[in-house]
Amino acid sequence: MQKTSSLRWRVAQYLERRWWRRYLRAKPPEQYLAEKSAYWQRTLDELGWTVIPHRKVLDAGCGPAGIFITLHGTERVTALDPLLLRYETDLSIFARSRYPETDFAVQTLEQPIPGGPFEAIYCFNAINHVANWALALDQLTAVAHTGTRLLLTSDVHRHPWLEPIFRLLPGDLLHPQQHGPAAYRAALQSRGWRVEKEQVLRREAIFDYTAWVAEYGSR
């Protein structure tokens, strides 16, 4: 089972690189980065999330244009992703030298995370890309302390009957993890997170792109 899961993750990582190259092919880098930064700000505003200057934060699974592009220079960001070196080679939008205030870590979410504990953790559309969902959530929790804030987003299944089918068949190759919203709530709560808000940010035929705002170790 672990071998199958690992193979599925490696395929997803390959497809992720290819997706970014194709997606950005006709987009001017500076225009894309400006639009993406504005998108991040709109998302934070929609969720009522406050950015706090000098707060120590983690951008987990940051990709080439994660929320670090908006937060750098305001919050103190550690940004991690296993494909960062590939993105720096493949994509004109990403260079670590653009963000000298940001600490980058080239690693998976399942590995011990450097720089913690953090006062806030951002994990946008990354937790369903991992090979080991439970271990990744464990590692995020390990770098939290009482009062740490979490903003987590993921595509989740709208229809419970489709979830087991997508787990067995390659219906969504970019996302090795297939879970419904109840599984996310239970996984967070069992690790000591108090979920304050669950909000659908975008609805599609099969998935809801959903956000959770939570606080660790309170009440």
Instruction: State the low-pLDDT regions, or none.
Output: 1-5
What's the N-to-C terminus distance?
37 Å
Shape: globular
Rg computed from alpha carbons, rounded to a whole number of angstroms: 17 Å
Q: Name the helix and strand elements from N-terminus to C-terminus, one letter apiece.
A: HHEHEHEEHEHHEE
Strand residues, percent:
25-35%
Biggest beta sheet attributes: 7 strands, mixed
Task: Find the count of extended strands (DSSP E, 2+ residues).
Answer: 7
Strand order of the largest sheet: 3-2-1-4-5-7-6
Share of helix, binned:
25-40%
Mean pLDDT: 85
Number of helices: 7
Structural class: alpha/beta
Keywords: Methyltransferase, Transferase
Organism: Neolewinella lacunae
InterPro entries: SAM-dependent_MTases_sf
GO molecular function, one term: methyltransferase activity
Main attributes of the structure:
single chain; 219 residues; alpha/beta; 7-stranded mixed sheet; 7 helices; 36% helix; methyltransferase; methyltransferase activity; SAM-dependent_MTases_sf
How are the secondary structure elements laid out?
Elements: H1 2-23, H2 29-47, E1 56-60, H3 68-71, E2 76-80, H4 84-90, E3 103-105, E4 118-124, H5 133-142, E5 144-157, H6 163-168, H7 181-190, E6 193-203, E7 207-216
Parallel strand pairs: 1-2, 1-4, 2-3, 4-5
Antiparallel strand pairs: 5-7, 6-7
